[in-house]
Amino acid sequence: xxxxxxxxxxxxxxxxxxxxxxxxxxxxxxxxxxxxxxxxxxxxxxxxxxxxxxxxxxxxxxxxxxxxxxxxxxxxxxxxxxxxxxxxx
Length: 89
Hints:
Blueprint: H1 12-40, H2 51-76
Helix pairs in contact: 1-2
């Protein structure tokens, strides 16, 4: 279940939320990198992928898109982007 902070302030709760969000985005970035490594590894053949393997590809693609959106939003807000995603297109 997702919760949302209805504040744009600079108080302690907002700062805590910013730190938690940063940690979650960094974890997502690491998971995305790991998923790409696994999917690029030996023994992976996209042409004969099972349903769970196809799901892994789709989830990895979706995670990439979410990270790009988060980075773009951060740039619009004047926040630094996530490392490793600025050059992707």
